[in-house]
Each structure stands twice: as structure tokens, then as C-alpha cells.
Amino acid sequence: MEQEVVERREFSHGAQFLLNTDLTIRGCTLQFGELMASIGVHHLLGRSVTDFLAEASLQRFQESIARLEHTHQVITDLVLTGPQGRQLTLQALLQAVMDGGNRCVQVRTLPSSLLRYPGPESEGDERLRFLMQLTTEGIVIHENGIITDVNQALLNLLGYTAEEVLGKSIFMFAHPDEHAAIRYVLEHNLDFLGIRHIKDRQGNYRPMEVNSRGVVHKGKAIRVLTIRDVSEIQRIRAEEQRMLAILEASPLILFVFDREHIQYMNRQGMAALGYDSLQEVLQVAPEHLFAKNFRGQLFSELVPEAMHSGKWEGQAILRRKDGTQLFVSQTLLAHRSETGRLDFFSAICLDISEEVLAWQHARESQERLKYFMEQSREAIIIHENGQIMDFNDAAVSLFGYERTGLQGLNVLQLMHVERTPQLREKILQWPQVDEEVLGVRSDGSTFEMQVRSRRRTYKGRQVQVLSLLDVSDIRHAEQQLLRSQEMLQAATQAAHMGIWEWNLVTNMVAINEVLRHLAGLPASCSELDFASLFEIIAGRGLQKLMIGIRRHLAGETSMLSEVLHTREINGQSYVLEIKGRLVRNAQGVPVQIIGTAQDITERYKMEEALRKSEALLSAVLQTRQEPIWAVDTDLNLLSFNSSFVRLCQQAFQCHPRLNQQFTAGEHQAETYKWHQRLRQCMQQGTLIFVDEMNIGPKRVIMEFTATPLKAGDELTGVSVLGRDITAQKEFEASLQQARLAAEEANRLKSQFIANISHEIRTPMNAILGFTDLLLQMKLSKLQREYLELVKTSGESLLELLNDLLDLAKLEAGRQELVYSDFCLRSLVAEVKKTFQAKARQQGLVLKTKVHAQVPKCIKADKGRMRQILNNLVSNAIKYSAHGTISILIDCKSVLNGQHQLYVEVKDTGIGIPKEMQELIFEPFFQLGNPLSREHGGTGLGLSIARHLVRLMQGELHVESQPGQGSRFYFSIPVQAVKVGQSRVRSNKS
Ligand code: ADP
């Protein structure tokens, strides 16, 4: 901005006015007041000039003012609304000026424009002349170069009389060098504003500012020249330039300022204060040129003194751009305008920093040293080569010596020399030491001590001054602080907890690392303003948070607690629980809110999932036909479905209520029963109860399954599911009846078979007996052959009858075991003997093996054991064409003195298909294979054997592979009998 600032001094005469930047009229000349005659000067001041501007010129005027930002001056047309509402069209020169330290605009109406003042025709010339005389500027009116009129101001300016100029050519007064230019302006009827050299009466050409305008007056084309003597201004400007050059070259720091602005600073000043350009300096507020700690003095001493006597002299402290201080010796001058009003200050400063530093250095001279020493709360010791010369009271008490004890001691005796490397050398030789060492008291105890050592001149000698400070407490406190800070940090880190402190005064929010990370901010950012922080992180819930904060600030809540969803940060959005509390200062003024931001994303997700699953569960519950309900450990109803409501209404005539204890309404006994059941379930786990009850008009059987509810290991209540099992129970009852009937029928049948076979056995024995007798008699060969057939048929029939009788007895449950003590090994030997011949006859090997752990003598039913073994071995032989039959007896385990006897019969015969392996134990079942037919048999043997093993508390099993052989085995508990106790001798049994 190249803006010429014209001093107010020029604003003195003519139709002029001065505007503030807001366009109010700051001042005006009497002449302007006369122009606006009907209004009067005092009515103009303070009013906006726009009130007097016709709308037509308002915009142009404002644009012109704006142009002043970039140029010295602007000429523009003004259409003023004058007396009686008449409009005056004036030409005006606008210039930016300073007035009393304020930037304002000076508006000078140009005399040429006065011509357009539309006065009444009759008073035209009169009025014109009057107006011409109003101005201090020279006015020349000419027609085609011939001067027709001038004003007194012009005559005064150049020293002519009216006669000497009127009717003369303007060229007579113009400098010959400028004639051509003037001619050009006239010929082309141009307006001109500029400097022309005009001859005064003494014959000197003087530079004048000439403003030439062509106008039409009373039908004639005339020119009005306004002439202003600028020689004085130019001289002043030249002088100013010279001054400026001197100021710029001066080694002094110079600057000019008013109350609000710095107006000027010389080059030396900018260099000393660290500014790069005048432009930059002009932006600075004047008080900022002075050091902060000096500003008080500036306003209390310098300025008042300068204003009072026009001058202040003394030492001042300036402030450099970088904030450092500059000591100067300063002369401050106050400048006043003609009206006595304070215009500006000029400051002339000499940089005396060097001297001040030297002086400060001097302050540390021995006098001051001694003084400080005594004043200091730090222990101070002065020594020369270790020898203590002087010390203060603090030193005496720090080390616990008597005053006399410390005198003459070696400083190294006050320190643990070994602990700090090179300590001796440092203390005795180094010019400057800053160390933390271990101090030693007179009693030998030690403490953390800070040592500062400086070389000084004292009493004319080179000494070392030690200042000593016990820092054990500080170190301890520091460590404590550090530890608690670390702990807090660790805790907040571990809890992944963000911390924020919102300073309500500065509106800045300090945040910790966790929150910084959550917000995705760089590590360098530990503080930012409140709005930015939440702008960065907030996604959903910001509005609610703001309302929460407002309510908390208004004191409606004791704690701020809101949930905020962040936007996507680091590819993830978080749910933060924002908590905070207002902190007030001692005066009760809110100063900050301190709070936390906890990442509860996982918890929130879980709760969300829980809400969903609860909704699902309740939907499922409600659609179930079965009554379902749950109680907590105090038996209060947690939840239930509509079927449960129906049950309560229909069975107990009551209505269940959530969170109230479960009762069966008026039915106290029922309530008591249920409370017992629910408590029992909590103690014992899942329980099933069956109740017969009236639901409405129906009698039903309900089955209730009560299951403890657990959250992890903790018992939280019981859930109960009811099921109507009436139909199922009825079905079971009818089945039971059918079974009983069938069993009875079976028993009767067995009874019948047992009776009948017994009845048949008696005549059968007679038949066989007599057949035997007959066979001993002399018979023909044919007779004997027939009789042999009768005998084998009879024996087969008797065998069948025996089997039938056995089975019938077993099925009717009438068979009982007969216990005796016997030797199992002998029994096995007998069985082997029985089948040995038959086996050999079929080319089979029959092997037996009784393991050593099998007791010698046992108590069992020997006959039935033999029957089982006989049956299994005879089958094995029957269904094996080759190979080996083996009998194995083992003793598996001993439990409570009982032996678990294992019996196995294995063959290498035809085997049994898998699907038949259970069927062969059914009575009368025989495999439909020719081989089996071939071997005859009744199909009762295995059935009887299984019954007998069961009677002995065992189970007969089979394992078989067709073509590979079969293995029949069972285990039964038996009592071992010691041989001595045995009543029956083994070989006799
Ligand atoms: P049976 O008097 O017919 O032998 P069982 O009740 O003793 O009657 O046996 C039933 C059926 O089981 C037999 O007909 C036979 O088909 C089959 N069976 C029994 N033992 C064996 C075995 N060791 N090997 C092959 N098949 C066998």
C-alpha cells in the first residue's frame, strides 16, 4: 500500500471536511459549513457523511474511499444535498491523512466545482466571486488563455496586483519549458492536475500544484485553474527525506509511535529488534516494543513524564521480536499538534546491553556475594583450593558442624569423594561445576546434595563459591511423583483409558496418549481446542454429548456420562464412554472439566448382542405352548411366557408379576411346596417334579423340569419348564397293564408246561427203565434194533422234557440256586472227561485252562455251573468240524472279598452271523442251516444257560465270526472259600 499520509496541518482552510473511517464527520471548515448553510457546523459533526450524499453518488464515493488504500489521492464527484434539499454537484479531492493518531479521510472540494453551484442567475457572478474568495488557494479563470478573473489568494501567492494579471495571457506566467504541454491541454480541452512552474512578481518560477478544469459558465467555455503553493511542502518533504536519510544511517534505534500504531522505525532499530521490514514493524502494537516487565513503568512513568514535560530520559528495556530483552538508554519525545493535542511519540534509543551485562556482572561483586550468601537459604561455602574461607548459617546447619568446626575444614570432607568420579579435580580445579553428589554431615550420615561451583574474585583472591542444596527430599518427591505418574500412566494404558482435561478458560483440551491413539492423532499432538477434538473423533452421539456437557455445566448433573460413537479411525470405529466432572477454582468459578474416555466397544457389542438374543429368547418363549418361567435366587420372577400366565390363572387363580416373588396366589401350601422345590433345585441341580393338578375344568398331570440358572460359576436363579404329560402317563399305564397281563399269561403257561412235563417225565422213566430191562433179555436181531431206537428216542424225549421243565421253572421264577463249596478245577476236569471221547471221535482237540489266581474252592451252585459248561462245550463240539475247543477259567478282579469269575468256551467251528447272535438265546431258536438240523438239539440250551448265568448275577455273551468260530463267555461274582473251612471236600463234590 503506497499511501501518502498528509499531516493534519494542511487541513486548515477552504470547503473541507474530515471523515473517520466509519464515514462520520470528524471535523469541517467554516467554509464547508457555509456551503451547507442551512445545517450549521455543529450539526454536521459526528453525523455520517452519507446523510448528506445523494444516493446517486454514494456508491462512487465509497469506491473512491476504498481506492485510497492503494493510491495517494482520488478525485471524485460528490452530489451533496444542500440547503432546501437542493443538490450540489462538487468535485472533491480525497486524501488519507492522520489526525490525532487516527487514520481518516480528508475531503477537499475543488474550487472548480463551485462553479456548478446552481445559485440564482442574478446572483451568479456575485456568488461565484464570493465563493472564490472563500478559499485560500489561488484561483485563475481564463477564456482561451486570457485571464478573466483571479482571487485575492492568487494575488497574495504570487505578489501581483489584479491589474497586472487580468486580461493577460496565462503563458506570460508559465515557464517556457511547459508552454507546449499547456497548449496541448488547452487544445484537447483536458483536465490537468500536477506541478507547473509559475513566475511570481520577483520573476522567480515557483513550483505550484495546478488543477485545471474546463467548464461551461453562462454558455461560455472557460477554464478554472486552482493553484496551490507546494514549494513549502516540497521543501519540507525534501527536508524530511534528508532527515530520514540521516535517521536511517544513524546507529541509534529510532522509532515513532502514537497510542495505537508504530508509524516509523529506522533500519538500525529493525536490525536491533530483529524485524525484517518496516511493514512488519507497523503491524506491532507499540507497547510490544517494550519488554513485558517494563510496560508498567512505560505507562506509569515514561508516557506521563513525556506528556508533561515533552521528554523522558532514562534506561528502558525493549523487547526483540523473538521475545528477548534489549537494554537501551532512551529519550522519549512527545509531539503535539498545533491545537496542543498529543500527536505521537518519538523514541531515540542507544543499545546499552553490553554495559548492562557488565553491570550485572559487577553486581556479583564480593559485597553482593557476601550479602546474598547471608540471605540465601542455600548453604554457601567459599573456599580456596579446598580450604574453607567463609560460609553462611545455612551451611552450618546443613552439615551439622559448630561454626568453628567448619572454619578451616577442607570442602572435600563434606562430600563423599569416592562416589562421584573426578570429584576432587572438579571441586578444586574446574571453573564451573554442577553436580549431584553425596553430602557427608559431621555425624557421618550422608544425603543427596546438589553442588554448584563458580569461580569468583573475593577479597582480592581467586576463590570458588559453592552453593549446596540438600535435594534428598526433592529427589524422593520426584521419584514418588514419577512413580505415581508412571502408575497412573500404566493404569490408564492398561485400562486403555483416555484422559482429557478441558481448560474452560483457553478452551484447549489436553489429552493423554490413549485418547490420542483413539482419536488417531499424531504423537506430537497433546493439546487441541475442544471443537476440533470432537470434530475429529465424533461420529454418532455428539449432539447428546453436547447436551450432556451443557447440563453438567448448568449443574443439573453431578457427573458427565455419555456414550459417543467415533467415526472410523485407523479403520475402526469405537464406542467411547465419556465421563467427566467440572472443576472449580477457589472462587467457585468453573475452570476445567477433567474426564475419561473409555473404549467400551467390546462391551457395547456384547450388550447389543445380548439385547438381540434376549429379544430372540423372549420371542421363542412366548411362542412355546409349555409354561416357562424363571426366578432369581430370591425367587422373584425374572421372566415368563403367556402359557405360564394361563397356568397361574387357571391352576392358582392368580396373576404373576415380574420382579415379584413367585406365589400360587391364595394356595399357601402350593406356594410353600414350590418355594421348597426351587430352593432344592438351586442346591442339587436339575430336578423333575410331577404334579397332578386341576387346570380349569381338566385334571392334568404336569411334569416340571427345574434347572439352575448360572452366569459363569455364579448361581443366578432357576428356570422351570412345565409339560402336560397326561396323555403319556395314560399310555404308560395301559402298557403296564398289558405287560402285567402278558407276564401273568406267560407265568401260567410256564406253570402249565412245568406241570405237564413233570407229569410226562414219570411215565417216561418207566418206559426207559423197562426198555433197559427188555434189552437185557434174549431178543432177535431186529427186535434189539427196534428196541435200541425206542431207547434213544425215549432218552431224547426225556432230555427235551428236562430242558422244558428247566426253562419253565426259570421263566416262572421258581428256579433257585443251591450253594455248596466245591473245587472248580475238578468240575472242569469232569466236563472235559465227559466230552473227551466225543471230541476225539470228531477229530477235535479239547483243551482246558484254569488260571492260578482262580481260588481253589468256591461257594456256588455246582450243578448249574456244570449244566452251563456242558451246554456250551456240547454246542462247541456240535458246530465245529475241526480244530480246537478250549475252556478257560480266570479270575478278573476282587471287590469286597468277592471274586469276579470269568468263564469262556471257544471253538473254531462254523460261527454265527452277526444278526443272529442275539436270537440264538431265544427259546427254540435254531439256525436254519442243515448242519444244525444234522446235529439235532432242542434250541433251548442257550436260553437256559443265559437264564442261569443271570440267576448267578452275570450275563452270557457271544462273539463270533461265521467260518472262524465262536466264543461264549460270562463273568459272575463268587465267594472264595479257604480250603480248611470247606465243609465239602473238593474231590467229593
Ligand atoms: P441246540 O439245541 O439247537 O444246540 P441251543 O440253544 O444250544 O440249541 O443253540 C441254539 C442255536 O445256536 C443252535 O441251533 C446253533 O445254530 C447255534 N449255536 C449254538 N452254539 C453254537 C456254536 N458253538 N457254534 C455255532 N452255532 C452255535
What does this structure look like?
- 26% of the residues are buried.
- The model is unreliable at 1-13, 115-123 and 984-989 (pLDDT under 50).
- Helices cover 38% and strands 31% of the residues.
- The chain starts with 5 loop residues before the first strand and ends in a 12-residue tail after the last strand.
- The strands form 7 sheets. Strands 33, 34, 35, 36, 37, 38 and 39 form a 7-stranded mixed sheet that branches.
- It is elongated and about 210 Å long.
- The chain is of the alpha+beta class.
Question: Which terms would index this structure?
Answer:
989 residues; alpha+beta; six-stranded mixed beta sheet; 30 helices; elongated; disordered C terminus; binds adenosine-5'-diphosphate
Brief synopsis:
The chain has 989 residues and is α+β, with helices and mostly antiparallel strands.
Amino- and carboxy-terminal Cα gap: 141 Å
Number of helices: 30
Small ligands present: adenosine-5'-diphosphate
Quaternary class: single chain
How does the major sheet shape up? 7 strands, mixed
Write the layout of secondary structure elements.
Blueprint: E1 6-7, E2 16-19, E3 25-28, H1 30-35, H2 41-44, H3 55-67, E4 73-81, E5 87-99, E6 102-109, H4 111-114, H5 124-134, E7 138-143, E8 146-150, H6 152-158, H7 162-165, H8 179-187, E9 192-199, E10 205-217, E11 220-229, H9 231-249, E12 253-257, E13 262-265, H10 267-273, H11 278-282, H12 292-309, E14 311-319, E15 325-336, E16 342-351, H13 353-363, H14 366-375, E17 379-384, E18 387-391, H15 393-399, H16 403-406, H17 423-429, E19 432-440, E20 446-458, E21 461-470, H18 472-494, E22 497-503, E23 508-511, H19 513-518, E24 527-529, H20 530-537, H21 542-553, E25 560-565, E26 575-584, E27 590-599, H22 601-623, E28 628-632, E29 637-640, H23 642-652, H24 668-684, E30 687-695, E31 698-711, E32 714-724, H25 726-775, H26 781-811, E33 820-823, H27 824-841, E34 844-850, E35 857-860, H28 862-878, E36 883-895, E37 898-906, H29 930-934, H30 941-951, E38 957-961, E39 965-977
Parallel strand pairs: 1-5, 34-36
Antiparallel strand pairs: 2-3, 2-6, 4-5, 5-6, 7-8, 7-11, 9-10, 10-11, 12-13, 12-16, 14-15, 15-16, 17-18, 17-21, 19-20, 20-21, 22-23, 22-27, 23-24, 25-26, 26-27, 28-29, 28-32, 30-31, 31-32, 33-35, 35-39, 36-37, 37-39, 38-39
Helix pairs in contact: 25-26, 26-30, 27-28, 28-30
Bound molecules: adenosine-5'-diphosphate.
